[in-house]
Amino acid sequence: DPATLMAGLLHDTVEDTEYGLEDLRRDFGDVVTLLVDGVTKLDKVKFGEAAQAETVRKMVVAMAKDPRVLVIKLADRLHNMRTMRYLKREKQEKKARETLEIYAPLAHRLGMNTIKWELEDLAFAILYPKMYDEIVRLVAERAPKRDEYLAVVTDEVQQDLRAARIKATVTGRPKHYYSVYQKMIVRGRDFAEIYDLVGIRVLVDTVRDCYAALGTVHARWNPVPGRFKDYIAMPKFNMYQSLHTTVIGPGGKPVELQIRTFDMHRRAEYGIAAHWKYKQEAVAGASKVRTDAPKSSGKSKDDHLNDMAWLRQLLDWQKETEDP
Fold this sequence. Notes:
Elements: H1 2-10, H2 13-16, H3 21-28, H4 30-43, H5 53-63, H6 67-82, H7 89-109, H8 113-127, H9 129-163, E1 168-172, H10 177-187, H11 191-195, E2 198-204, H12 207-220, E3 229-230, E4 243-248, E5 254-261, H13 262-270, H14 272-288, H15 301-321
């Protein structure tokens, strides 16, 4: 989305220079000006110690008239967290706490898990450095053995899917340091129990292939009762879609699997930002279509309906927050 990219590059200009909103409107148009103005207003929000994180999150969303303002703000916060080492310790901790309580949950709400995970790990390293270093050390120690087992599981899944003529990409799922820490605290388990649980991701072309792949996996390994979740039929609040299952894999060890389409995966990784990417691709594709040779945009009717449902849900959430 060109307007979002331009606003992202220009978001500090009004605040830090004499270049005002009218200058911005003259040179870049109304949309970019609206986005920059929205980010500037968010930058002025002060997070008091007594403020409830949920209240602040609602206020931030209500202030952002366009969801792209939130995307730019999240990118700005991610950049700040990556360069936090240049600030005083006290300010680092304040920003890291804001990040964990406000910005990481916002990223999750927008479905932007790639940003959410990095924000959490960066904040975790600042707020709990000893625990962070310990988990990093433990991960490094156990990684070779875990990767060896992961390769065996991945190979067996790929063989079964090929035999079933299901085109798929099978990879291991990365473990994020803050996620490991949270599970240790919330579930009261030790590191080995959490980290040694292998996660596999299976990406396929269609929804039908998702269920076919699930049947193929369950035919090889017994599923763990109560661990199957169908988020394709019943998406999460941020429109995340996937099939989740846990099976008893080689050597009697539990293996977690996520099965989804490539479109669902992009949405799971980049959230609302993926919607604009699709929109730009659709526009570009439409402009190249000849009248005598119509082509598919690459997205099914169901995918477009999912995108619209997602945006409607976000707008409903935004409307709710305008009068908390």
